[in-house]
């Protein structure tokens, strides 16, 4: 196969079509480059909820795959154009994210549904999007519940990890389409 009579930097493969090898190598590189954009096999979100009783505040950060959130908003709310993945999202996109979250997430303290969260700027890149919001001026409470349906209705196998943190307790729940509620009882 090797023609050793030539200098090493001018090796010749006898019986091998180097044009086909170059084309095949190029196709392989293109495939590998775009395989990063292939759909991900797992559909998981992570939500961190922190209760700060001394500040009368509950803060949320919801981290989801960008393509999953984009798909959900496009299918549910049907905007003219909606794209995520850029660092500075237009106000229209922020409003659509807030509308979607408001439809799919309920917060209940001591049996009362809490409305009107204060949204903070969303962080987005091509892989992940993190949605931040908080409820302020809350009275002290002894039970905290969430009814969480983000992405469950659209993506088969979607799982949502919810972590609740407070000075009294810390707990995690794994939610899905079958189990979409979590409650934490705070103890003094």
Describe this structure in words.
With 188 residues, this protein is α+β, with helices and mostly antiparallel strands. Helices cover 23% and strands 35% of the residues. The protein is built from 3 helices and 10 strands, in the order H-E-E-H-H-E-E-E-E-E-E-E-E. It has a 6-stranded mixed sheet with strand order 5-6-2-1-8-9. Strand 8 and strand 9 form a beta hairpin. The radius of gyration is 25 Å and the shape is globular. The relative contact order is 0.17. About 10% of the residues have low confidence.
Topology:
Elements: H1 18-35, E1 44-52, E2 57-65, H2 66-77, H3 91-104, E3 105-109, E4 112-114, E5 118-124, E6 128-135, E7 143-148, E8 159-165, E9 170-175, E10 181-185
Parallel strand pairs: 1-8
Antiparallel strand pairs: 1-2, 2-6, 3-4, 3-7, 5-6, 7-10, 8-9
Quick tags:
188 residues, alpha+beta, 3 helices, four-stranded antiparallel sheet, 23% helix, six-stranded mixed sheet
**Total DSSP helices:** 3
Strand order in the sheet with the most strands:
5-6-2-1-8-9
Radius of gyration: 25 Å
- The average pLDDT is 81
The global form is globular
**Total beta strands:** 10
Order of helices and strands: HEEHHEEEEEEEE
- Gap between N and C termini: 80 Å
Question: TL;DR of this structure?
Answer:
The protein is an alpha+beta fold and about 190 residues long.
């Amino acid at each position: 196969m090797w023609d050793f009579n030539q200098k090493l930097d001018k090796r010749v493969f006898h019986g091998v079509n180097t044009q086909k090898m170059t084309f095949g190598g190029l196709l392989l590189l293109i495939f590998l480059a775009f395989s990063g954009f292939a759909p991900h096999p797992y559909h998981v979100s992570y939500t961190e909820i922190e209760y700060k009783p001394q500040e009368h505040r509950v803060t949320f950060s919801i981290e989801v795959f960008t393509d999953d959130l984009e798909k959900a908003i496009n299918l549910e709310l049907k905007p003219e154009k909606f794209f995520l993945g850029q660092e500075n999202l237009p106000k229209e996109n922020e409003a659509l994210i807030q509308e979607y979250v408001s439809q799919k997430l309920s917060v209940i303290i001591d049996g009362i549904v809490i409305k009107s969260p204060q949204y903070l700027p969303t962080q987005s890149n091509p892989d992940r999007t993190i949605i931040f919001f908080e409820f302020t001026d809350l009275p002290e409470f002894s039970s905290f519940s969430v009814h969480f349906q983000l992405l469950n209705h659209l993506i088969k196998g979607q799982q949502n990890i919810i972590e609740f943190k407070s000075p009294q307790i810390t707990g995690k729940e794994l939610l899905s389409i079958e189990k979409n509620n979590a409650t934490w009882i705070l103890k003094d």
